[in-house]
Amino acid sequence: xxxxxxxxxxxxxxxxxxxxxxxxxxxxxxxxxxxxxxxxxxxxxxxxxxxxxxxxxxxxxxxxxxxxxxxxxxxxxxxxxxxxxxxxxxxxxxxxxxxxxxxxxxxxxxxxxxxxxxxxxxxxxxxxxxxxxxxxxxxxxxxxxxxxxxxxxxxxxxxxxxxxxxxxxxxxxxxxxxxxxxxxxxxxxxxxxxxxxxxxxxxxxxxxxxxxxxxxxxxxxxxxxxxxxxxxxxxxxxxxxxxxxxxxxxxxxxxxxxxxxxxxxxxxxxxxxxxxxxxxxxxx
Length: 284
Ligand SMILES: [Ca+2]
Hints:
single chain; mainly beta; Immunoglobulin-like; Jelly Rolls; 2 domains; seven-stranded antiparallel sheet; five-stranded mixed sheet; 2 helices; globular; disordered N terminus; binds calcium ion; A-galactase_NEW3
């Protein structure tokens, strides 16, 4: 039974169609809501700062405008950034789809497997398959900070806290917020840290600040900063960087056992914001 729902939803996604409940066709003159979701399945990894997402589409195919509360529920260990997506849907002609992005997460302890998110709006229902993938192994040579829990002194409203541990260090993506930007303009210091989830040997930290053709590091990157590791509950500075104008700064040091890494920014080249594209941590 569940499999058939998956199959219908997956087929609809491929065809770009919508899944409409049978009850809706009997709704008479009431506004008709169609729901879509992509991707299908939603794939998610059980790391705290590597969120996945689904994009929910809501279309009013009826003749009257309607205010819709789409309720979302997840099965098993799957978590949702929000449980309701609300929108006014005018009776556009031709039909127009309103979309909303909803973050999907899973805890580190989640059992890999297939789960679902169900969406209900008015009398329309949609079942979205979610696949929880196994945790990455993080072997020797892997980035130990990838997807781990970030924290910051502040985060600008247009950016995401997890942006600097999301595995994307392409500065061309800065405008879609795959980086961390602090929220206190012209006030320093700012700091950004990553808890690694366990104690590990660390010998190299790579700090990528904003550095693109449009936003060169010499004008927009972080300039003066300390790179720190947490050992035995205390922060220890392993590198002091001053006057930086490069997009990537590699800090190497005698390996230490630590459970977190932090960058404390004392100034940036525009003296306004601290910007980190990606913070990567390696055993050596
Ligand atoms: Ca990033």
